[in-house]
Design goal:
Layout (H helix, E strand, L loop, with lengths): L24 E7 L3 E8 L4 E5 L4 E8 L1 E6 L2 E6 L3 E4 L5 E5 L3 E8 L4
Antiparallel strand pairs: 1-2, 2-9, 3-8, 4-7, 4-9, 5-6, 5-8
Length: about 110
């Protein structure tokens, strides 16, 4: 279910989350059995350590760019670009500069 405050109005997703000096900023917009939708805002040096998910991850960079490691391949993904990471694939994200991203995880049907 999406946050009801987000219904019915056009949104600039990058404006829905702010950078934090202390912690990696994370804001969950929706969560169901089938899907999670999460915004992240990274400052330089902040990262998500290597991990996997049980669903396919669709990541769209909203502002700046991020450095991604996906199954030992390196990518820089810039604002407006999307990267799709299959379920079970080891991946990590590191901020070289400030950047914001939208993460959608699509879980397999039960």
């Amino acid at each position: 279910m999406f946050d009801p405050k987000l219904y019915g109005n056009p949104l600039r997703l990058k404006d829905q989350i702010q950078y934090s000096d202390e912690l990696l900023a994370k804001k969950q917009l929706a969560s169901t059995k089938a899907t999670k939708v999460i915004l992240f805002a990274f400052n330089p040096g902040q990262k998500l350590n290597p991990h996997t998910t049980t669903g396919d991850a669709v990541i769209t960079v909203l502002e700046g760019n991020g450095h991604y490691t996906v199954a030992e391949q390196e990518f820089n993904v810039a604002a407006g670009e999307t990267i799709i990471i299959p379920a079970g694939t080891l991946h990590a994200v590191t901020a070289v500069e400030q950047f914001k991203m939208l993460l959608m995880i699509i879980f397999p049907a039960e």
